């Protein structure tokens, strides 16, 4: 005979076993699902390549969080070396892949920081004109964000050398020109592919250049590479080309050998010539060899 | 009182509970490990891009399995369209990324088939000479593999148009030249960046050309783009450059307008000029527009 106490305990234990069995079935199903998920992720037939890792920082100046993708050189972890940094405007996946491929082909080692856009017109444009209207041009704020927030953040977190390169294309190429004139000490190398401005922006950039070139020393040792195409569908009247021809004369007469400067036009290369980024990175790397 | 039978049953059930608890602990640890693994794989901060999917086929001709990475156009699944195919020799990740970026920039839609090497010298070289010694040159076998095995496999499995392009660089660029002369009907477009041969291979290619150019019609509508660099460290005496200058004269006099042919040299671009693949793809795409 089972006494009342033991009977209750037995029943309770029996219920426990049933509950445990149910839980185990659920866990079993979960385990199988998880294993399928893992095998799907790890053993899929897809071929993927890692192009970097996510990073971000909150900018007080812009009052928003800015997303980054950072690519470290392959041997970053294995070495104790410090690396130059390439700041990539319009930091899309394709631009980052482009930059990685260019660095790979030129055998250059860079930490690449791709900066995703939030409000591109606001950040890239220092002005608004009928040729390109921008509601709220705030390039000076974006430049402060780079100098006061992003660069210190990157240089604290990663092993960086003191060499900084910025690259923009099209609208962000115009920003690179603005940054070169407004804060030449911030980067060592400025690459603007499909940079330049329309005719109605000429006065603004003339004034900015005049002011900037008064302090020649701040440009000492800087490198500037700008490029565009004579068949740019966004520049049908070759106004951007003309702005850069004029600027080339101006910078040569004002700064002479103070800066390494190259303006390259491509005959039939559409908007943002494919080879221009490679040629720009080659130009700045040759500069390093000279030193 | 508990009778003997019930006592045994109780004890057995108690042991069962203990065993189940141990098993559950193990499962718990497994679950946590799996969750960590999954979160690491799926929610890591890594940024990856899919560049294609794995494929492979067994080649009776080469008596080995050949690995491929195939990239389908973004809208492949959504459309019922057939696409041209770009066969990429030296099918490394970087060459595939390069090809994808070039296609993206030129707004070209291709199925890209990257063919991984097994024995590169054997497959790419039709001959062995003191300038480049190959133990067992079997380019004719590799060409048969392409024509009789790979292309039928790809054209059965994927929605392909009839337009086929082959691209090689350096040693595989030499193979592209060989393929153009040995089997001009196999591809519509041949791109050899850093193609050409050393002086001691000249006789072989002269004989191959003489034989090939007897049947002018087999070259009808073909496009050939070859490129190299005047500063190629692997061609210090410019023998490869000279071979292509001579070949250019020969093909123009033998075939005239029968083929679209371009030979481009780059001044200071090292081995395999960065822009050459883009320029080659641009050249073949302009050919399509002409038609």
Describe the structure.
- Two copies of one chain form a homodimer.
- Chain A is an alpha/beta fold and 291 residues long.
- The first copy, chain A, has helices at 4-43, 93-106, 120-124, 139-157, 171-182, 202-212, 239-255, 276-290; strands at residues 46-59, 64-71, 83-88, 111-115, 160-169, 189-193, 223-229, 260-266.
- Chain A folds into two domains: 1-40; 53-290, Alpha/Beta hydrolase fold, catalytic domain (Rossmann fold).
- An eight-stranded mixed sheet of chain A has the order 1-2-4-3-5-6-7-8, sandwiched between helices.
- In chain A, helix 2 (93-106) packs across helix 8 (276-290).
- At the A-B interface, helix 1, strand 1 and helix 2 of A face helix 1, strand 1 and helix 2 of B.
- Strand 1 (46-59) of chain A pairs antiparallel with strand 1 (46-59) of chain B, so a sheet runs across the interface.
Briefly say what this structure is.
The first copy, chain A, has 291 residues and is an alpha/beta fold.
Task: List the topology elements.
Two copies of one chain form a homodimer.
Chain A: H1 4-43, E1 46-59, E2 64-71, E3 83-88, H2 93-106, E4 111-115, H3 120-124, H4 139-157, E5 160-169, H5 171-182, E6 189-193, H6 202-212, E7 223-229, H7 239-255, E8 260-266, H8 276-290
Parallel strand pairs in A: 3-4, 3-5, 5-6, 6-7, 7-8
Antiparallel strand pairs in A: 1-2, 2-4
Helix pairs in contact in A: 2-8
Transmembrane segments (chains A, B): 22-43
Organism (chains A, B): Winogradskyella ouciana
Family (chains A, B): Belongs to the esterase D family.
């Amino acid at each position: 005979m089972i006494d009342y106490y033991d009977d209750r305990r037995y029943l309770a234990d029996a219920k426990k076993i049933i509950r445990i069995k149910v839980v185990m079935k659920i866990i079993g199903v979960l385990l199988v699902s998880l294993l399928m998920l893992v095998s799907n992720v790890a053993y899929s037939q897809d071929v993927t390549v890692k192009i970097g890792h996510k990073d971000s920082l909150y900018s007080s100046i812009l009052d928003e969080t800015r997303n980054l993708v950072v690519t470290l050189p392959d041997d970053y972890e294995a070495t104790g070396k410090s690396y130059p940094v390439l700041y990539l405007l319009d930091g899309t996946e394709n631009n980052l892949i482009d930059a990685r491929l260019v660095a790979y082909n030129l055998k250059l080692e860079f930490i690449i920081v791709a900066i995703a856009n939030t409000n591109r017109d606001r950040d890239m444009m220092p002005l608004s004109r009928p040729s390109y209207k921008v509601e709220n041009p705030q390039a000076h704020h974006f430049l402060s964000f780079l100098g006061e927030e992003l660069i210190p953040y990157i240089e604290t977190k990663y092993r960086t050398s003191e060499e900084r390169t910025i690259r923009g294309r099209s609208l962000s190429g115009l920003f690179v020109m603005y940054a070169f004139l407004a804060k030449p000490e911030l980067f060592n190398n400025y690459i603007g592919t499909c940079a330049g401005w329309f005719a109605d922006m000429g006065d603004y950039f003339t004034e900015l250049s005049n002011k900037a070139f008064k302090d020649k020393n701040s440009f000492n040792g800087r490198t500037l590479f700008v490029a565009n195409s004579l068949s740019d569908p966004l520049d049908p009247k070759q106004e951007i080309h003309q702005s850069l021809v004029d600027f080339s004369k101006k910078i040569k007469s004002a700064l002479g050998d103070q800066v390494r400067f190259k303006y390259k036009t491509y005959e039939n290369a559409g908007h943002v010539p494919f080879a221009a980024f490679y040629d720009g990175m080659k130009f700045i790397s040759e500069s390093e060899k000279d030193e």
